Amino acid sequence: MAVLKVVDKSYKTKEAFYNLLIYIARKSVHCNGYGISLASIDAVYYEFDKVKAWWGKEEEGRRQVRHFIVSFRPEELMIEEILPIAWQIAGYYGTRYQVFYGIHGDTDYPHVHFVVNTVSYVDGKMLSEGEKELYELKAMVKDITEKAKLVGY
Fold first, then answer.
1. CA-CA distances (angstroms) from residue 39 to 20, 32, 49?
2. How far, in Å, CA of 77 to CA of 51, rounded?
3. 37-47 residue pLDDT tens
4. DSSP class of 68
5. Strands 3-6, 99-104: parallel, antiparallel or unpaired by DSSP?
6. Residues near 76 by Cβ (< 8 Å), separated by ≥ 6?
7. 46 — alpha (psi -120 to 50), left (phi > 0) or beta?
8. First to last CA, the chain
């Protein structure tokens, strides 16, 4: 069974956001995303920031990104089997928000860090992060991971 952890950190400065990207990329065995170039971490950072600027929401002091982690028991899935699951989870947000993710295999429990831009590239709306959205995120992760087991990922 996958475990979802929403990181309760504000990432209210651009430096905090950039450091998070560096951490995720440095420890990842695989990185990918939606609505971004993967040319470099600097490119990912720049593109997230440009969406904020385009919609006039680039100032520091507001949450820059949403960060959450999905982890797996080592006996459940191998890293290669996590790839399509991570892509599907990222796709939940990817039609409206930029998403960067990295798969880490450096602990006993393989896990995926997801970073979601809080400003939509579609319409500039802020990512809603209330209880309803947390429940929907949990349900989506559960649904995707359970279906993955059924089809043999």
1. 17, 11, 16
2. 35
3. 999 999 999 99
4. E
5. unpaired
6. 1, 2, 149
7. alpha
8. 14
